[in-house]
Structures are given as structure tokens and as C-alpha cells.
Amino acid sequence: MKKKAWIMASFTLFRGLSALVSGRTNVPRMKYLSQSEAIAVDEELFKYFSVDSLMELAGLSVAAAIRDAYPPKGQRVLICAGPGNNGGDGLVAARHLKFFGYEPMVLYPKQSEKLLFRQLVSQMELMRIQVIDAIPMTEQYDLILDCVFGFSFSGGKPRAPFDQILNEMTNSKKPIISVDIPSGWHVEQGPPDTDAIQPSILISLTAPKHCAIYFDGPHYLGLNVPFKIQQKFGFRQPRFQQAEQFLRLDTLSPDDEILFHHKTEESLGGFGTSDDDDDDVTTIEVEVASPKLKEQTKPPSDSTTYF
Fold first, then answer.
1. 183 annotated ligand-binding residue
2. What is the CATH number of the domain that holds 174?
3. Which of 46, 96, 170, 280 is most solvent-facing, going by the fewest CB within 10 Å?
């Protein structure tokens, strides 16, 4: 815990010095959700949207973010899918990655018997996406998509076979893209003190969770949320540009204020927009990496509960 406290202090100091050196004294930051907040947001979404519709949007966001970070050149992608809805996001992403020009394979050792998940497997089989249950050697793939555990994971040692899967990913030298939570990390306390997955890219859904504080690489945000729900839970999503399904949080700057949702005649009532007065909404800031950090963490161009 002392190590994590030191990381938090260093993170806060770095953020302040970065803003001071660059002359930015009001650096926007996005709110980080606790586990209970993430669950509450999830439950609120389920009041208005079906699981399959949310999963489809989440999986599309994930695939689109991967396409941005690693443009398709026929890369072999291993999707490691867990038994819950985070794994379901991976099953959806596999289908979209196939459309985008990748060669996905899905490691899905504990398949759900729920109709939705059986349909997702059938859809992948229709598209000739191989689904396996034996853990392969990760080095034969170009990218690894981590969709094992979502924000319902509260730490501790995972059970078999997921302990072996996490160990294989931890020791892999291939780029790992984690969805919402790097598997094995505590949703609030971050990585365990022992060896853990260190993803190359993190794709947060709806809003970053507390553990994202411990991640300093390219950070994407996916899954647009209606403004009313953002307002209820006290967070604000930056505006997704045009038809994009994601945005890069770590490349935003104070000059990107236009990215935040403001009340306009053109945007009333839609996803991420307000049909009420914005005066009572607290402005949430978005973490901004320093130019040096952004340069260091830029991915190579070639190369639940819910979520």
C-alpha cells in the first residue's frame, strides 16, 4: 500500500508540475468512477437499454479504438474473453475487427449458457472466427485484447483457467489492449503488488475507473452515455467527434473545451447532450498528459455487472 500511495503522490505532483511548466493552470480532468459508482451507472443504463444493445456499442467502440491505435494490416488478434459481460464486449469486438481487416481468434474457455452469449458465438462462427478454449502461446499473435474481467473484479487470485490466462498475458511481449479494467487489477486500488498485466493501451467505457490513475499510456474512451445519466452521476464525457465511436483522453488539452458537451440548438436531447440548463452541472476535467509523455506512449502505427 505504501508503494501505491507513492504512485498516487507522484501522479499528483507530475500533473501539477506539467500544468505549471506549460502555463496551464486549469487543466481539464475527467472524473474517475469508483466500483460502486460504475455499478450504479451500469444499472441506470439497463433501465433504458438492453444488454445486447449496450454490448454492441461497447464492442464497436473497442474495435474502432484498436483500429485507430493499430491500423489494420491483417494482424492476428487474440481476444481473451471472460465469462461475464466484459467478455461479451470482446466477442462483439472480434466481429467488428474481422470486418476491419484483422484476423481475430477468441479464447473463450468458460462459455455462458445465456442466449445472448450463445448468439454471439454463433455470429462469430458464421464469420469463420475461431473460438478456442485451450490457452495458446500468445507470441504467435500480433495483438492481445484483454476482456477477461470487468469492474466487478475486486482483487485476489483469479480461479483457473483465468489465472493461467493472466499469467500468459503478463509474460507476453506483445501489445495488450485492456477493456475498462486491466484484468487482475483492483478496480480502485490498481495493480496488485505482484506481477500484473501492464497494458499498452487502456480503453475505458462510459468513464475511467479509479484504477486508470495507475495507467500512463494511450487512454481511449468509448461508449457514449446520455447526458441525463452523466448529470445524475456527476461526470461529463467529452464530445465524440462526428461519427467516431471513441476519443483519446490522453491527447486532449484545455484548447479542446469544444469537445465537452454544451447546450446548442443542434444537440438538444441526444446522447451526451443536455435539454436542461447546464448552470447546475459541475465541470469535470480530463487528464492531459504532457507532450513528452504523449510522445513516449504513442502506439506504433504498424504494429459484470457490465463492462
1. yes
2. 3.40.50.10260
3. 280
Q: What is the pLDDT of residue 13?
A: 39
Q: Is residue 290 part of a domain?
A: no
In a domain, 199, yes or no: yes
3-state secondary structure of 275: coil
pLDDT for 94-153, tens place per residue?
999 999 999 999 999 999 999 999 999 999 999 999 999 999 888 999 999 999 999 887
> Does 163 carry a binding-site annotation?
no
Q: Is 87 annotated as a binding residue?
A: yes
Ramachandran bin of 156, using left for φ above 0, alpha for ψ from -120 to 50, beta for the remaining angles:
left
- Flag whether 226 is in a domain: yes
Q: Consult the annotation and say whether 234 binds a ligand.
A: no
**Percent of the residues in the chain that have a pLDDT greater than 90, as a whole number:** 64
Instruction: Kindly report the pTM of this predicted structure.
Output: 0.78
50 is in an annotated binding site: no
Quick one: CA dihedral 64, 75, 179, 250, positive or negative?
negative
> Domain residues for 102?
35-251
Of the pLDDT bands very low, low, confident and very high (cuts 50, 70, 90), residue 289 is very low
Cα three-residue angle 188-190-194, rounded to 5 degrees: 140
74 is in an annotated binding site: no
Got the DSSP string for 211-246? GGGG--S-EEEE---BHHHHHHHT--PBPPPTT-SE
SS3 (DSSP) at 267: coil
Q: List the strands of the sheet with 219-222, edge to edge.
A: 130-132, 103-107, 76-81, 143-147, 176-179, 201-205, 219-222, 246-248
State the total domains in the chain. Answer: 1
> What local confidence, expressed as pLDDT, does residue 303 receive?
37
Contact 277, 263 (CB under 8 A): yes
Q: Is 85 annotated as a binding residue?
A: yes
Q: Would the annotation count 86 as a binding residue?
A: yes
More confident: 51 or 16: 51
Residue 184 lies in a domain: yes
